[in-house]
Amino acid sequence: MKHYAMVIDTKRCIGCSDCVVACKTENKVPEGFARDWIVEEVTGSFPNLSLEYRTERCNHCIDPPCVTVCPTGASHILEDTNITLVTEEKCTGCKACVAACPYDARFVMPEGFVSKCTFCAHRLEKNELPACVSVCPTHCMYFGDLNDPNSEVSLLLKTRKYKTLIPEAGTKPSIYYLTD
Amino acid sequence: MTETLIISNKVNHLIDPQLSIWGWEVPVYLFLGGLAAGALVVSSLVILFGKEEQYKNATGRLIFWGLLFLSVGMGALFLDLEYKVHVWRFYTAFELKSPMSWGSWILMIFYPVSFLLMIATSKTSFSQLRARLGVFDGEGVFAKATQWCELKKNTLAKVGVVTGASLGGYTGVLLSANSARPFWNSSILGVLFLVSGLSTLIAFHLLFVRNHEEHRVFARIDMGLIVFELALLGFWVLGFLNGSEISQRAGHAIMGGNYTELFWIFVVGLGLLTPLVMEWLEERGRKIPVVLTSLLILCGGLALRILMVYAGQETGWITY
Asked: What is the pLDDT of residues B282-311, one digit of tens each?
């Protein structure tokens, strides 16, 4: 099984939103909707402040509550991976998965079915990187298989300090943020 | 300490800036589903306790109301679906871990069980209609089916208790299974919604009871249920006060936040405490208008579900 993960270097990210534009273009995300977004967080007290840019999206959790709650099986995990997807033809638009996601990463398309980041599964089939990763001008985004100890993402997590978002929600997210 | 937080490009409809995926349709469905669950449980228990002759309005007719409530509730739920043409997909899968999947299939058991129980009790509940239609007596297929229902009445009632209780509990579990929404994430919700469903249903039933003894019995049961519901709400609030930071933040919605008045005045005060005192005074011989007591309980039940659905969506792990 492949454990696909995205590693994002917050020390390199400048919040340019190129990843957002690339995703919208690649996945034909309609106007007014977004599968990924930018968070700019300033922490500390003046004058000791620190700034962090993060590009956020579905965390493709190892234990995804959005899949568990789906009553029709539309929300599912791609075989032999940790990629969570939505089968449009099975989705009723009940929004149970939207409520279950602690990251608020899902949304309802104008047609009525639920959508979200797919880690560009269609590109992975062709051995291409997700669109957002491939366009990043500062090369702050890395993508690969964490079950391969020699993959770039595995090596980065071995050598750099990192965090995940809301680990206490217990979903085991697969997006890692390098913090130093 | 976070000084500033700026989010760019996240403008998803119904998600940002505030989760608002479920509107009036869901609380209405949860309320009517609770009433329907209560109708099946109460009527089944009346049959099992052998009180069918004594409480004629509390069996077949109550089940009929339950079916009506559930059908309207399911209509509301259908309106909430964003991809309505795919509604049939609920019945092409059974997802063991999905409360909504369990709920969908429980609804499918609810209808036939209710219908069979209605037929089984038709002799006492719908005697005039039954005589007029005629098909339920004699030798025909309907007559044989009716005889079978009457023969299996107690077994059907036992299934009715389980099905009704499952439906009532499910309306709460549907919300409580979401760990992403700390306002809902309490195992008390299943029992709370079931008890509330039973209490509101009895309040509804009392509107039609003319017999003094029957009124006294059901009013007493309702008082017990209200006390139980108040205790459950107390435990639920304690859970927020003694919980983790995220739990305390969620509890703020009803303890100083936007939903404080709705909870303490409309759900607890007017929806539970006031009717409890009114039923108690009535028990002591005071003249109390039943319509007012029942309406307060029914409105309180609806207010509880409105509060749960709307306030719950405002809570979450994400702080932006």
From this structure: 999 999 999 999 999 999 999 999 999 999
CB contact under 8 Å between B7 and A106, yes or no, is no
Tell me the per-residue pLDDT of B181-197, one tens digit each, with 9 for 90 and over.
999 999 999 999 999 99
Domain limits for position A164: 4-178
- State the smallest CA–CA distance between residue B145 and chain A in angstroms: 34
> Of A137-146, B65-74, B83-92, B117-126, which gets the smallest average pLDDT?
B117-126
How far is it, in rounded angstroms, from Cα B77 to Cα B32? 11
At B65, which CATH number?
1.20.1630.10
Domain final residue pick, B177, B211, B237:
B177
**Cα B125 to the chain's mean position, in Å?**
23
Q: Do B12 and A33 touch (CB under 8 A)?
A: yes
Check whether residue B162 and residue B244 sit in a common domain: no
In B, which residues are within 8 Å of A111 by CB distance? 83
CB A14 within 8 A of CB A139: no
Within-domain flag for B8: no
Q: Which tens digit of pLDDT belongs to each residue from A39-76? A: 999 988 888 899 999 999 999 999 999 999 999 999 99
DSSP E strand stretches across chain A? 4-9, 37-45, 48-56, 75-77, 84-86, 107-108, 114-115, 141-145, 162-163, 175-178
B276: domain range? Answer: 182-320
ipTM: 0.92
Same domain, B58 and B168: yes
